[in-house]
C-alpha cells in the first residue's frame, strides 16, 4: 500500500476511535441544542455590533465597554452549557490524539524509529509540534 493509501486507512481508523465518535456526538448535540445555538447567534450579533462601533470614528467608549461586558457574559453562558462543555472536552481529547499522531509522523520524517518513538503528552515547550494550548 502506498503512503496515501496508508493515510486513508489511518483516517478510517481515526473515525472508528471512541474519541472521534464522542466528538462527533458532542458536536451533533451542540448543533441540536436550540438554546445554545440562540446564545451563539446572540454572541455573533454582539460581536458584529462591537466591531461596527469600534470602527466608528466617533467611538462611544462607554457603549463599547458595555457591549464588551455583554459579549463576555454571553460567552460565559455558552461555555457553561453542558453540551458545549462536553464538546470542548471531546475536542481536547481528539486534539491530543492528533497531536500524538503528528508527533510520530514528524519524528519519523526526522529519522526517528516510528516503532519506538514515544510522543509527548504534555507541553514540550516547542510550539512547532503543538496543536495549541488548552
Short description:
With 134 residues, the protein is mostly helical. It has helices spanning 3-16, 18-31, 34-55, 61-80, 82-109.
Distance between the termini: 36 Å
Low-confidence stretches: none
Q: Tell me the major beta sheet.
A: none
Would you tell me the structural class of the helices and strands?
mainly alpha
In helices, the fraction of residues equals over 70%
Q: What is the helix/strand order? A: HHHHH
> Helix segment count?
5
Gross morphology is elongated
Round the Cα radius of gyration to an integer and report it: 21 Å
Q: Strand share of the residues?
A: under 5%
Mean pLDDT: 91
Counting DSSP E segments of at least 2 residues, the number of strands comes to 0
Describe this structure in words.
With 134 residues, the chain is mainly α. Among the domains are: 1-32, no CATH class; 34-85. It has five helices and no strands.
Task: For the structure shown, list the relevant keywords.
single chain; 134 residues; mainly alpha; elongated
Element layout with pairings:
Elements: H1 3-16, H2 18-31, H3 34-55, H4 61-80, H5 82-109
Helix pairs in contact: 2-5, 3-4
Amino acid at each position: 500500500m502506498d503512503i496515501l493509501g496508508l493515510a486513508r486507512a489511518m483516517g478510517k481508523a481515526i473515525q472508528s476511535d471512541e474519541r472521534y465518535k464522542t466528538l462527533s456526538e458532542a458536536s451533533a448535540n451542540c448543533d441540536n441544542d436550540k438554546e445554545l445555538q440562540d446564545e451563539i447567534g446572540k454572541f455573533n450579533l454582539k460581536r458584529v455590533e462591537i466591531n461596527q462601533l469600534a470602527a466608528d470614528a466617533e467611538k462611544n467608549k462607554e457603549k463599547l465597554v458595555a457591549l464588551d461586558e455583554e459579549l463576555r457574559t454571553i460567552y460565559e453562558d455558552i461555555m457553561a452549557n453542558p453540551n458545549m462543555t462536553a464538546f470542548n472536552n471531546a475536542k481536547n481529547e481528539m486534539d491530543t490524539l492528533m497531536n500524538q499522531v503528528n508527533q510520530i509522523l514528524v519524528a519519523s520524517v526526522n529519522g526517528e524509529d516510528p516503532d519506538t518513538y514515544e510522543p509527548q503528552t504534555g507541553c514540550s515547550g516547542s510550539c512547532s509540534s503543538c496543536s495549541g494550548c488548552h
